[in-house]
Structures are given as C-alpha cells and as structure tokens.
Prior knowledge:
By secondary structure, the protein is mainly alpha-helical. The protein has one domain (15-76). The protein has helices at residues 3-12, 15-42, 45-75. Helix 2 (15-42) runs antiparallel to helix 3 (45-75).
Amino acid sequence: MSAMAKKASNFKKSKTGLYVSLGSTAFGAISIAKQAKLARQDNDVLRLVDAAVSAAAIVTGLAILYRELKRLGDEDVLLG
C-alpha cells in the first residue's frame, strides 16, 4: 500500500473523515428531495419509489456514520 493510500485510509477512520462523510451523505438528501418533488409533479410512480429507496439508503448511511462517530468518541481518552 502506498503512503498516499495509507493516509487516505486513515482519514476515513478519523473524526474529520466521518464528519466529511456525514456532510456529503446529508448533501445527497437534497438531490433525493428534488427527485421526489419532480416525480410527484410528473406523477411518475417508478421515480417516486426510486427516491424513497434512495432516501432509505441515505438514512441508513447516516445512522452507520453516526455509530462510527460515537465509537471513535468512546475510544478517545480525552473525551471521557
């Protein structure tokens, strides 16, 4: 593994990396909301189902990231 890849891997496991992941996942929710709004306007059931499934995936992703953030906080001695 190269030094750059190792650095990127460590970033994903850091608090900063988790906050960036949370933000980018939450930002995806805006796209899903727009997709759902357009689907309702066009009465497109298939796109509405797609938006609902995508929203469920985003909620699940946020829950997993939140759990990882709590786990990192539990391991941090300075946070108590």
